[in-house]
Amino acid sequence: MDAGGTLADYDIELTRTIADAVSVPVIASGGAGTPSHFAEVLTLGKADAALAASLFHDGNLRIAELKKDLQRRGVPVRI
Predict the structure, then answer these.
(1) Which member of 5, 51, 59, 70 has the lowest number of beta carbons within 10 Å of its beta carbon?
(2) How far apart, in whole angstroms, are the C-alpha atoms of residue 76 and residue 66?
(3) pTM for the whole structure
(4) What pLDDT does residue 18 have?
(5) 21 lies in which domain range?
(6) Any domain includes 3
(7) φ/ψ of residue 59, rounded to 5
(8) In angstroms, rounded to a whole number, what is the distance separating the alpha carbons of residues 12 and 77?
(9) SS (H, E, C) 42-65
(10) DSSP state, residue 35
(11) Is 1 a domain residue?
């Protein structure tokens, strides 16, 4: 959460540590700035989902573009 709005990336290590320690779904939050940030937190970070706001609200990325990118990388997404 500390990186919210920075577009500097999620905390992958912290997210993975939490995901490994709990039996409930983990939602990454804070820091998304590029499609690769999402792919990393959903794979390397083991998050079940990822939140983002700034890059969408500011028009830096469209949700449809992100979904296509994630699909291309083999990350499952809802259609």
Answers:
(1) 59
(2) 12
(3) 0.85
(4) 96
(5) 12-72
(6) no
(7) 80, 15
(8) 19
(9) HHCCCCCEECCCHHHHCCCCCHHH
(10) H
(11) no
**Residue 65 pLDDT greater than 60, yes or no:** yes
Torsion of Cα atoms, 64 then 70 then 71 then 73, to 10°: 150
**20 occurs within a structural domain:** yes
Count up the domains in the chain and report the number: 1
User: Is residue 5 a contact partner of residue 52, using CB atoms and an 8 Å limit?
Assistant: no
d(CA 64, CA 62) in angstroms, rounded, equals: 5
Calculate the average pLDDT of the chain.
88
Q: Which of these ranges, 35-39, 43-47, 54-58, 68-72, has the smallest mean pLDDT?
A: 54-58
The two structure tokens encoding residue 13: 């290590």
The yes-or-no verdict on residue 22 having pLDDT over 50 is yes
